[in-house]
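Async update (no meeting this week)

Hi team, since we skipped the sync, here's where things stand on the single-chain job. The sequence we agreed to prioritize is pasted below, unchanged from the tracker. I ran it this morning and attached the output directly underneath so nobody has to dig for it. Comments welcome in thread, and please keep replies under the output.
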Amino acid sequence: MASVCSSIKGLPNRFIYGTTKAAVIGLTKSVAADYVAHGIRCNAICPGTVDTPSLADRINANPDPDAARKAFIARQPMGRLARAEEIAPLVVFLASDEARFVTGQAYAADGGITI
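Output:
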């Protein structure tokens, strides 16, 4: 699991996080290259901001959680946060035989942040 906040897009005040997720994309491509001849695939999913318990903890750690949540939503072109169940179908697809010819890719599921 990578993120659109990576080598795909820089986001303010997220340079350490973005660096680590860019490394995940690089690792994905390297693993895919090393193992493609063995029939082993490796892909990365790069979500935008997903409404998870971890995000709720980050939001609630702010002095004004309501303002923090609104700020996260404001940077989403679709005007809302993603739900985990909106990312899960991509996980299922990439794990399925339908994706047997897909490897070394970084898939953005970001609600339009990168457009």
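Quick observations from my side:
The chain is about 45% helix and 5% strand.
The CA atoms of residues 50 and 82 lie 4 Å apart.
Reply here if anything looks off.
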